[in-house]
Write a structure and sequence with these properties.
The protein has helices at 9-19, 24-33, 38-46, 65-77, 87-90, 92-98, 101-113, 190-193, 233-269, 281-309, 315-340, 351-359, 368-379, and strands at residues 118-122, 138-142, 145-153, 163-169, 183-189, 198-202, 212-222, 226-227, 271-272, 275-276. The chain is of the alpha+beta class. A hairpin with a 2-residue loop joins β9 (271-272) and β10. Bound molecules: flavin-adenine dinucleotide (FAD).
Length: 386
Amino acid sequence: MSSDDETFPDIRAGVRALCARFPGAYWRGLDAERAYPEAFVRALTEAGYLAALIPEDFGGSGLPLSAGVAILEEINKAGCNSAACHAQMYTMGTLLKHGSAEQKQRWLPGIAEGSLRLQAFGVTEPTSGTDTLSLATTARREGDRYIVNGQKVWTSRAEHSDLMLLLARTTPKDRVAKKGEGLSVFLVDLREAVGRGVTIRPIRAMMNHAATEVFFDTLSVPAGNLIGEEGQGFRYILDGMNAERILIAGECIGDARWFIAKAGAYASERRVFGRPIGQNQGVQFPIARAYAQSEAAALMVARAAGLFDAGERCGKEANMAKLLASEASWAAAEACLQTHGGFGFAEEYDVERKYRETRLYQVAPISTNLILAYLAEHVLGMPRSY
Ligand SMILES: Cc1cc2nc3c(=O)[nH]c(=O)nc-3n(C[C@H](O)[C@H](O)[C@H](O)COP(=O)(O)OP(=O)(O)OC[C@H]3O[C@@H](n4cnc5c(N)ncnc54)[C@H](O)[C@@H]3O)c2cc1C
């Protein structure tokens, strides 16, 4: 959507007003300390934005995914960072879609009202990386419990989440009928688990992302916390990936718009050689090109979200939305930094912070190569490359 043709104008206006209370100085302070934006996340939760996609029956707003896209886009467009809390929107989708009635009743209302945070998602492991089916964390059934052993890495926000959606192997890889079977999804209650089988260690990363590594040492999880059927977890996780990719693509569009606005304003006001730098085509063109790229990507994001909301297949569009939007935000970041010259590197302009933050999206939650491999194989019919 172009900024003249905005979806959900009331929601966007509300998010913008909220974000205005959290200016660059707030984020710079947190960045320096690698601290979690607790006040910002609380404000978003209290205003109900993080529960936008939870059905009204469970206390949420029951809005479509497109509304979630609008919310995350506005947050990033305002210079804030959705990565602090975006998983609260999409992680609950696995519970909503595959959890039992009792599990949904147990957890969703608390998540909707903000008394429970579900924003840790434990899939990636140090040895298996992108090859999720080779993950080594195991969950072994013992009576009415599962015993979990292993390690996750890059688990964002684990220290700021009450619950974690965990993917673990319940049947050894060489004993499953089909390649994608044998993994299961659990909701781990971190409030009980930390110190009793779970250890969380922060990872200091390029940007302030509350990234951690999580160790499981004979953690005991009630069998009642298994989501859906044992052995079908990989399918459930794949199911949720379209929503995750579309929402994160929305964030990238927000970032791109922030960078383009910031670059355009600076180019018009900064004078060198007696005229605004933006009068030079060498300065204008990268910004204009990034704008065209981000508007095209925004159309793909809107299309993917529209298909998702209509209950149509959207794997192709969700992947392309994430690919194009993450590349558009990076092009905009590059143009913005270059336009600012040396000042682009000064913390007080916020450009270098946003630059570091937006770079992530070409690697996580899925790297560009893997999206290209998906398109090549599943859309264009070429041989599987891995
Ligand atoms: C800040 C941050 C937060 C994250 N948060 C989470 C989280 O909350 N939960 C979670 O589970 N994970 C999280 N991740 C992990 C993220 O999803 C992975 O880093 C990402 O999927 C890539 O996996 P990897 O790092 O193991 O890279 P690898 O799998 O080791 O790949 C390394 C590089 O090789 C390329 N590559 C690998 N195989 C192929 C192939 N067959 N063809 C072509 N190229 C290939 C990849 O594209 C990549 O560029 C996070 C990561 C970061 C950095």
